[in-house]
């Protein structure tokens, strides 16, 4: 269907003043930022962190190395639903599901591997997980001597959980209860995160 001429909005090209054409306001603004940082540094407010002697404190929403969370009995929380690997744009999560040895769930991940070199740390896996089994932590200084070292299997991902929770650096951001909202429908959904509860 042809576009009606009266529905077309023509936008005039902005007219620049001579100063704007010479980039004068942009240069002044850029110099202002430089001078602001210069005084901040001279006043003792350092902008460079002496890593690794000094470790920066990352904001809680920083997306770093993954971990697989444990439930209250210390078992892997994952129910092998494949939602994270389906959502992953980098296709770097490989899961092999098996019948669960526990009566409270159907499946569990027999193997669960994330290729940390392929990951783009977008957090889509965390968003997709219905039981908060996978989370991205604030650990960022990830190194390895070989490609295989960067393939994080279930044990390694669970050890990241143990490390971060023992250290207290990454509290579990559980929002979906023990086995997700569907398991709690009869009791009404309870959220430990008040922001999420308000969002319903
Ligand atoms: S953070 Fe993104 S790229 Fe990395 S495993 Fe999760 S979904 Fe995939
Ligand atoms: S989305 Fe969560 S429960 Fe499902 S396979 Fe991934 S980590 Fe496991």
Walk me through this protein's architecture.
With 200 residues, the chain is an alpha+beta fold. 26% of the residues lie in helices and 12% in strands. The chain has a 3-stranded antiparallel beta sheet with strand order 2-3-5. Strands 1-4 form a two-stranded antiparallel sheet. β2 (93-99) and β3 form a beta hairpin. The longest helix has 19 residues, at 24-42. Mean pLDDT is 86; it is low at 181-200.
Any descriptors?
200 residues, alpha+beta, three-stranded antiparallel β-sheet, two-stranded antiparallel ribbon, 12% strand, flat, disordered C terminus, binds iron/sulfur cluster
Strand content: 5-15%
Which stretches of 5+ consecutive residues score pLDDT under 50?
181-200
Number of helices: 6
Number of DSSP strand runs: 5
- Structural class call reads alpha+beta
Helix content: 25-40%
Bound molecules: iron/sulfur cluster
N/C terminus separation: 41 Å
Radius of gyration from the CA trace? 25 Å
Largest sheet: 3 strands, antiparallel
Helix/strand order: HHEHEEHEEHH
Oligomer: single chain
The side-by-side strand order for the widest beta sheet comes to 2-3-5
Average pLDDT confidence is 86
**Based on CA inertia axes, which overall geometry fits?**
flat
List the helices and strands and how they pair.
Layout: H1 18-21, H2 24-42, E1 66-68, H3 83-87, E2 93-99, E3 107-115, H4 124-128, E4 134-136, E5 151-152, H5 154-167, H6 194-199
The chain binds iron/sulfur cluster (2 copies).
One iron/sulfur cluster (SF4) binds next to helix 3.
Question: In brief, what are we looking at here?
Answer:
This protein is α+β, with helices and mostly antiparallel strands. 26% of the residues lie in helices and 12% in strands.
């Amino acid at each position: 269907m042809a576009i009606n001429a009266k529905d077309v909005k023509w936008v005039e090209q902005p007219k620049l003043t001579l100063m704007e054409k010479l980039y004068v306001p942009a240069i002044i603004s850029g110099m202002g930022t430089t001078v602001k940082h210069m005084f901040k540094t001279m006043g003792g407010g350092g902008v460079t962190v002496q890593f690794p002697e000094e470790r920066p404190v990352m904001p809680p929403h920083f997306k770093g190395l993954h971990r697989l969370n444990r439930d209250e009995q210390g078992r892997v929380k994952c129910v092998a639903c494949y939602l994270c690997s389906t959502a992953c744009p980098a296709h770097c999560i490989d899961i092999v599901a098996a019948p669960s040895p526990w009566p409270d769930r159907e499946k569990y991940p027999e193997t669960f591997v994330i290729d940390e070199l392929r990951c783009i740390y977008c957090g889509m896996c965390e968003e997709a997980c219905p039981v908060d089994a996978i989370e991205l932590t604030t650990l960022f200084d990830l190194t390895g001597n070989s490609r295989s070292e960067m393939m994080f299997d279930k044990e390694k991902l669970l050890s990241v959980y143990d490390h971060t929770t023992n250290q207290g650096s990454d509290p579990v951001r559980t929002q979906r209860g023990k086995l997700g909202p569907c398991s709690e429908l009869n009791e009404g959904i309870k959220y430990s995160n008040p922001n999420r509860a308000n969002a319903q």
